[in-house]
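Appendix B. Chain record.
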Amino acid sequence: MYLSLQRVSKTFHGERPVQALAEVSFVIEQGEFVSLIGQSGSGKSTLCNLIAGLLTPDSGEIRLNGALINGQTGHVGYMPQRDLLMPWRTVLQNVILGAEIARKPLEQARQRARSLLPLFGLEGFADAYPRQLSGGMRQRAALLRTILMDRPLLLLDEPFGALDALTRREMQNWLMTVWAQLQPTVLFVTHDVREAALLSDRVLVLSARPGRLIADVPIHLARPRRESDEAFLRLQAQLLGSLAA
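Structure tokens predicted for this chain:
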């Protein structure tokens, strides 16, 4: 057991309280690539913020390697929907930012970053600034920064949502190459059923608000997956059916 959520709930209190999540429970094993899908407003990003420690659950437990991490930051690598690259820093300076914040040896961080730039499609761009990069390159830089934080779990919150369709497909294929080589444990948030079916070992499905886990779908299709295969099309239909339930 790597990441474990047990009966996690969250309500936002204001003039009218809004319950975002209701008793969500699941487990992610080490090295798994798990996607989380749900309709807009189902609590997907709230769940990421809870796991990252940016929010504290009203009830329930979040554990990483058995340790309770409710409300604690610094345990996971979190890549939000926007790349959040600092425009005044070069690519290399951006991707080692986590090492700087953690006060780790910077030369060692630079060397590791440079060694990974080719895998991330950024060879020759170490000294470029974010404004000089395409949307896909910016997302690759943001993911490299997340991986270089050396956290046991990566939370990727709709990282390709702002990209055009062609770039998004290229990034999906590239992400599978990176995952196959580095084998991180990933929780990938998306609203795209096709994307979830293409990338994942398992797909978790949240209901409409308040978000409850209504399906946990294992995927046994070999990678790389062909979207025209009958089994892949059946999987997409199953996931769409779960969302509509």
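Further analysis of this model is presented in Appendix C.
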